[in-house]
Amino acid sequence: EFEPFQETAKRKRKYGIKEKAVELPLKVFAFDLLYLDGRDLTREPYETRRRALEKLVSGHEDTIILAEERVFTNAKELEKFFLEEIEHGLEGIMTKRLDGVYQAGVRNFNWVKLKRVEEGKLEDTIDCVVLGYYTGRGKRTQFGIGGFLVAVYDDKNDTFKTISRVGSGLTDEEWREMKKRVDALKTKEKPKNADVAKEHNPDVWAEPSIVVAIRADEITKSPLHTAGGLALRFPRLMAFRDDKNPEQATTVSEMEKLFRAQKKR
Prior knowledge:
Layout: H1 5-8, H2 17-23, E1 28-30, E2 35-36, E3 39-40, H3 46-57, E4 64-66, H4 75-87, E5 92-96, E6 111-115, E7 126-134, E8 147-154, E9 159-166, H5 172-184, E10 186-187, E11 194-195, E12 204-206, E13 211-215, E14 218-221, E15 230-233, E16 236-240, H6 252-264
Parallel strand pairs: 1-4, 9-11
Antiparallel strand pairs: 2-3, 5-6, 7-8, 7-12, 7-13, 8-9, 10-12, 13-16, 14-15
């Protein structure tokens, strides 16, 4: 059974490690071997590396699982397998040439990742409400903001429920503009009409007022977001929606409909 990263990340903790390991057992999927006992295997063909990996993992199947390997001779069989994996909720598959060597940092046809992006990509933007921002790191320390938290509207309970953290799609000027807008609406505590899991608490809270258009690759499940357990994958800012008030943002029920429609594609 495959769980979303947000769920497996709960294993990261200082206390109660053994108890959580029993509750949420994880296993390592091994798919390649680049170095073994002082020997560099990167110049060896994939078939040789795979056989060495199989020998190394043998006897440790309780904690390490070999990634499934299938050899295809035609594109039709490959496509069929790809679609089967997508139906199982996986992002895609990794294809490799049997005689291909490993070249770090090089894009070529020795390794090709096949992902369902176009079929799963959202066709429209999501209108979200900004609940606050996170202070920046690296280059973004100059802006004082490195990401922001967005929510959709729960019209049944008149609350704003989180759907994503956003950290891309902004120009330098837009980062400054976002900080300026949030600072103008800054609050000392979480707004009463905001439903936010503590894992996503921003460094600076804001009254739910700023509406933004967000584009994402797809809608995924996330136990750490409060909008019906849904989240946006690869979200990026498209525009400020000054023409909309917060209650005109995309609703939780609309997100659930989009998620169901996405799965049918």
